[in-house]
Amino acid sequence: xxxxxxxxxxxxxxxxxxxxxxxxxxxxxxxxxxxxxxxxxxxxxxxxxxxxxxxxxxxxxxxxxxxxxxxxxxxxxxxxxxxxxxxxxxxxxxxxxxxxxxxxxxxxxxxxxxxxxxxxxxxxxxxxxxxxxxxxxxxxxxxxxxxxxxxxxxxxxxxxxxxxxxxxxxxxxxxxxxxxxxxxxxxxxxxxxxxxxxxxxxxxxxxxxxxxxxxxxxxxxxxxxxxxxxxxxxxxxxxxxxxxxxxxxxxxxxxxxxxxxxxxxxxxxxxxxxxxxxxxxxxxxxxxxxxxxxxxxxxxxxxxxxxxxxxxxxxxxxxxxxxxxxxxxxxxxxxxxxxxxxxxxxxxxxxxxxxxxxxxxxxxxxxxxxxxxxxxxxxxxxxxxxxxxxxxxxxxxxxxxxxxxxxxxxxxxxxxxxxxxxxxxxxxxxxxxxxxxxxxxxxxxx
Length: 446
Ligand SMILES: Nc1nc2c(ncn2[C@@H]2O[C@H](COP(=O)(O)OP(=O)(O)OP(=O)(O)O)[C@@H](O)[C@H]2O)c(=O)[nH]1
Ligand SMILES: [Mg+2]
Hints:
The chain folds into 3 domains: 1-17 and 139-223 and 387-446, Four Helix Bundle (Hemerythrin (Met), subunit A) (Up-down Bundle); 24-137, Probable tRNA modification gtpase trme, domain 1 (Gyrase A, domain 2); 230-374, P-loop containing nucleotide triphosphate hydrolases (Rossmann fold, 3-Layer(aba) Sandwich), CATH 3.40.50.300. 44% of the residues lie in helices and 17% in strands. The protein contains 16 helices and 13 strands.
């Protein structure tokens, strides 16, 4: 292993970015027309030449310029637009990029896209292709690309903040730092193996450092899944006996008629989900089939699903229509209008009426409070996806392996696998780089 890694000093190339010459791509990057403004973006070797041929003149880089855009094939005026050129590599994709800010009319955008489509060497971008090129050119790592996708999909304030932190490289920086530290340790171990006559060298000097790294990563993993909860939303299951008003409550909270309500017990069969914004924290409210013994196989299946949803939910609201009885979850007593009870929060129970709306504000405030608590952290969450969690957990497991391994060669292999796991987080797994690090430090007259 050590021999293979340390063969020769010739292989010390930079972690290779071999940019093949590729198509110039274009797409409407703004929302669906009509709109005030539409932004059409081009990226690739022909982007700036095409920009100038549309504008009929030279366009200064990085300066917003008003230009009359004409179809190069027939000289027809398409629109007067604000255009920008970003020469490579200082652009979003790392390639030459042009942006055309035209009036956002359906026909304007169509005419422009048609004109672009007629130009040789240009083609419509595939979904995500601009970001993919940015990734390929080292402008973004995987976590930042994911962060950008999440930022575009963000529906609530908490999601926006999380996505912005990811897009800004919060996780990338940490993962890269951990990985670099492991690669340094690995280089030391490799050198020990290489320069020692024995194969059972004690690689003990690095164990303190490995244990510290392991603790650091484990601490980040121990985050109550706040990042994933913010990204995916908190799950709130509404359960209870048939006819207590679960669906009515869901409709009241969602402020629309999402679930069917009737005086017939056993109305809801399927689980129905509604998205809620709880003070910036996304949540999914899940209506379920009323729990009771039944011979109806369809209803029984609904009840099975209700129990499963409750088991996996972040919160269970247990609705009943009377004061007595136990509950597994937060107790909510509905129909206080017919029971003659006052609305509010007393003795751990929320009293309300889905029909009159009394007590709903208390429930909403309680939910917002609960959501804030469920997603509260000292530090901004680093992990936003199961993929991140799996890779970091793998790194911890490999570091544990390394710590327990007496054989220096196997110890080094575990460290290498830990580094790879971290490299998978950012998508920058690269053996070349590992080699570079080792050669750079230990190429002493070999
Ligand atoms: N008086 C009064 N009636 C209510 C209230 N909430 C719901 N109801 C009525 O109770 C009946 C049952 O309501 P649903 O919302 O369908 O009850 P559910 O718990 O979803 O019932 P299943 O889906 O069958 O389990 C309907 O006739 C509602 O109009 C309330 O706050 N006050
Ligand atoms: Mg129902």
